[in-house]
Amino acid sequence: MQVVEMKENGVAAAAGAGEKAAQTHLTVKRGEPTLVKPAEPTPTGEQYYLSNLDQNIAVIVQTVYCYKDGSGGDKQDDVAAALRDALARVLVHYHPLAGRLGISPEMKLTVELTGEGAVFVEADADVDLADVGDLTKPDPAALGQLVFSVPGAKHILEMPPMTAQVTRFRCGGFALGLAMNHCMFDGIGAMEFVNSWAETARGAAHLTVPPFLDRTVLKARDPPAHTFPHHEFAEIPDVSDTAALYASQDLLYRSFCFDPDRLERVRSLAGAGDDGDGDLPRRRFTTFEALSGLVWRARTKALGLAPDQRTKLLFAVDGRRRFSPPLPRGYFGNGIVLTNAIATAGELLSAPVSRAAGMVQEAVRMVTDEYMRSAVDYFEATRARPSLASTLLITTWSRLEFHGADFGWGEPVMSGPVTLPEKEVILFLAHGKERKSINVLLGLPATAMDAFQELMDEI
């Protein structure tokens, strides 16, 4: 199993391309940021409605796409110009991205349709693209230079919905770094935007998947009716004092690659034992259910949680087809809903992996149209946001088509996230040319990471 390790305040690579990235001093010189406005008139002077599903996850997500152009010279200047021009044209369709975040009279996040434009920056790196290393291993120190953040911004209202940075490398390759607010769209919506931008750059006359902009289809019911308990918002006491563990040790990040053979072993392991509920000894689990159960249990053990410590697993389920009626094709917004499972550490560790995988499966099945509308109504009534106390949040990007963003220079040779947003987050990423492997990325205190490593080595 390939493992790459990173410290919070630097990079300490253990193997592979990540080692090269750790040894390479990347310096990026940025030009002045400019604003790219929609190429045609768009609605202005109004507020664009964000649904309650958008309100819960207003965090900046940074991703990088690297392209091995190879031509060098003047054509690199054409890259920035082409991307800027195509962005202006695609913003006609996605015009809320040219606005700015604000607060509605109901004290919710909204988008002020100012039409002032997305932030666009050109930059130059002093190394070759190959020196960046492997983007499947997030490295905030280096990769963060490939994404533009507004200097001095103290909160999301001072940050534009999206920024784009084009970085040219000595070899002729280039990188496109995006910083986009999750309240504007989930992973599927973000990739539809990037792919629309890409096909616009390639000269397409029409978008394959035009955005559906009306988010009022997910308005809360009147009156709100939350018919589920929604434990995803629950605050869980830290009786194990893991806060002290995180405070006293370096936070290490590692990436664990599960190839198809290892994933099959995980599924077999999850399906091998009775989950204690009286079901048949063998159950069928999806790769996500089995892998999520495995890492939830392993992380619980690695952190040394007290047997009576309650631990919550959160993860997002795509609700686009689960709503009744389904959300329209190209829905521009968050169509994901958080679901959850809660157990004590003792319950997880005294039972086989099938117990944890079974709880994940039950959490997936819980997400029905009524559950999702109940979640929308719950926020309307309480304005509560999911708590990450004593929580593991798994987010999966393994089905997102990052590799398909062809702006006219071929598919990206590398793409991926810049960093993990919170210490409680684990990210599942597709890996390899055929995307049949999964990289599991996470951060843990040093001693807990060593314990987690040993558990993964047993698989």
TrEMBL record:
Entry GO MF terms: acyltransferase activity, transferring groups other than amino-acyl groups
Pfam families: Transferase
Key words, A-Z: Acyltransferase, Transferase
InterPro entries reported in the protein's UniProt record: CAT-like_dom_sf, Plant_Fungal_Acyltransferase
Top-rank taxon: Eukaryota
Sequence similarity: Belongs to the plant acyltransferase family.
Name this polypeptide is given: Omega-hydroxypalmitate O-feruloyl transferase
